[in-house]
Design goal:
The chain is α/β, with parallel strands linked by helices. It has two domains: 33 residues, no CATH class; 275 residues, LarA, N-terminal domain (Rossmann fold), CATH 3.40.50.11440. 36% of the residues lie in helices and 21% in strands. The protein is built from twelve helices and twelve strands. The strands form three sheets. The protein has a six-stranded mixed β-sheet with strand order 9-8-10-11-1-12, with helices on both faces. The protein has a four-stranded parallel β-sheet with strand order 4-3-2-7, with helices on one face. Strands 5-6 form a two-stranded antiparallel sheet. Helix 4 crosses helix 5. It is globular, with a radius of gyration of 18 Å. 49% of the residues are buried.
Length: 310
């Protein structure tokens, strides 16, 4: 059975998926006590230079992942991991249009430390990939710690039946969903159409024909999220884009929040992200849709713990 068929089998078997999720998340009493979500917040000095900002991003990412049990819960020895940041735009890190490169670099390093054989980093940008990968700082950051930086070949996208409420099938990049684990790691930012870009919205980077989603974006991204069955996501709030998203470009629209959250519950992460962005969960239609689909809970405080980081 090849990788795509095996994944189709898992997706098509609800009982198998539930059993797999239960076995991977509940490994003894210690695992049962691990919180489903950790929010790491910087409690040190708020005025940071570039070197201090990098150090803060690294520590926040490490603590967020450590707080949900570490990547060894998710990364099998010898596995192939795809780290999926938001690299959509030809923007420098300081403009918060893409995921913070230091967050990405830290995740890649931790994947290798957890036993991954190969870590790939890539996205399907809206701007030219050759520019976005470089200007975002993500390409250099990922390569520094041994990741393969992948430029997606749009001709290789394959139509996949996801059997959603609105989206029945969509072209998906097979190398992204055939890996052993995908770690979704977007930045929190304003989005003119979807209200906000966070974890569920970031999965639009695994597909082609994205304009299909624009007719009913909340349902469409929830359809895609349910198909992908995320096991772990992180949400970057080191810097966030508060307006004129998703592209941004004006430094006045950037707010420094110095936080990173990690969770096994993608809806809870997006609910927290909405709050960080100054919105309520009711302002983000995909959050309500995610709850309706049974993908998670919007009352993130019921499952999260906060860690102060200095």
């Amino acid at each position: 059975m090849n990788n795509m068929n095996r994944r189709d089998f898992i997706v098509g078997s609800a009982a198998g998926a539930v059993a797999l999720s239960a076995s991977s998340l509940l490994r003894g009493a210690a695992a049962a006590e691990t919180p489903a979500m950790t929010i790491a917040k910087w409690s040190g000095a708020k005025e940071l230079d570039a070197a201090q900002m990098k150090q803060a991003a690294v520590k926040l990412t490490e603590k967020a992942i450590e707080g949900i049990g570490g990547l060894k819960r998710f990364v099998s020895q010898g596995s192939v991991v795809w780290v999926k940041p938001n690299i959509g735009w030809d923007r420098a890190p300081e403009l918060a249009g893409n995921t913070n490169p230091d967050v990405v670099e830290t995740i890649v390093r931790l994947c290798f430390e957890a036993g991954a054989k190969t870590v790939k980093v890539g996205d399907n940008p809206c701007d030219l990939a050759a520019k976005s990968y470089v200007s975002s700082g993500i390409s250099d950051a990922a390569k520094r710690v041994g990741a393969q930086v992948v430029f997606l070949d749009k001709t290789r996208a394959k139509e996949v039946a996801i059997k959603g409420e609105r989206v029945k099938s969509i072209p998906i990049f097979p190398e992204m969903i055939e890996c052993d684990l995908m770690i979704n790691v977007p930045v929190i930012k304003h989005h003119a159409l979807a209200t906000a870009t966070m974890c569920m919205k970031n999965y639009m980077g695994v597909i082609e024909k994205r304009n299909t989603f624009h007719q009913d974006i909340a349902t469409c991204i929830t359809d895609l999220t349910r198909f992908l069955k995320p096991r772990i996501c992180l949400l970057d709030a080191v810097r966030i884009l508060t307006n004129h998203g998703p592209r941004g470009g004006d430094p006045k629209d950037v707010a420094v929040k110095l936080a990173v959250a990690a969770s096994t519950d993608i809806v809870a992460l997006d609910a927290w992200g909405a709050e960080v962005l100054g919105k309520s969960v009711n302002d983000i239609p995909s959050i309500a849709k995610g709850v309706e689909y049974g993908l998670g809970r919007s009352d993130y405080r019921a499952i999260a713990r906060e860690i102060a980081v200095t």
